[in-house]
Design a protein that fits this description.
single chain, 202 residues, alpha/beta, seven-stranded mixed sheet, 6 helices, 16% strand, transferase, SAM-dependent_MTases_sf, methyltransferase
């Protein structure tokens, strides 16, 4: 059965009162993720972030908490949900694209913070591999790439979830030049020479 990221999907997984703060889009949980990603990027950049690219942005949920922290930053989002783009595209600067389109798509200069949250574990391997190099090429600071594996206890939307081992993602992300920082955060190749020994993976 084809998965549809329509209004019903977002209502179910992001706004269902029964899920409360355990929902994917729980406001407190999201605010903590955003704060962590922003702080980590600024730690490595040694300045406030100015630009964010959100690949697989859905309705642009990251935009508001990002602007709350950094009101002047530039936010740009891409998603494959026709519903999300038609409803929120103009207001939130969201545009239509499949992940695999980033094999060729370079919509902006490399950004301070790249977000690709809760996306990669739903992609077929061929599409994933097509778009992966863009994550490193479009990130000039830190990437938040929230991804779950078959080693994780998964709650929530398991329809279409690809039960891959963690090493599958580690190998692919490191092969395009990203360095793991922990907590779903990855450092751009641009800044890796500036890290201390104990900031790097063993």
């Amino acid at each position: 059965m084809t998965k549809h990221y329509d209004q019903a999907y977002f209502e179910r997984w992001y706004r269902d009162p029964a899920l409360k703060e355990h929902a994917i889009g729980g406001t407190a949980r999201l605010a903590r993720k955003v704060a962590m990603a922003v702080a980590t990027a600024e730690y490595h950049l040694e300045r406030p972030i100015r630009s964010v690219l959100d690949i697989g942005c859905g309705e642009g949920a990251w935009r508001a908490p990002l602007l709350k922290l950094r009101p002047k930053l530039s936010y740009l989002g891409f998603d494959s949900s026709q519903y999300a783009i038609e409803r929120y595209g103009r207001k939130r600067n969201l545009h239509f694209a499949q992940f695999g389109d980033f094999e060729y798509l370079r919509p902006c200069a490399p950004v301070d913070l790249l977000v690709c949250s809760d996306v990669m574990h739903y992609l077929d391997t061929r599409e994933l591999d097509r778009g992966l190099p863009a994550l490193a090429e479009l990130c000039h600071g830190v990437a938040f790439l929230e991804t779950f594996t078959r080693e994780d206890g998964i709650d929530g939307d398991t329809h279409g979830f690809k039960r891959r081992p963690a090493k599958f993602y580690r190998q692919r992300l490191q092969s395009v030049g990203l360095m793991p920082l922990g907590s779903h955060l990855w450092l751009s190749p641009v800044h890796q020479d500036d890290t201390a020994a104990l900031e790097r993976p063993a």
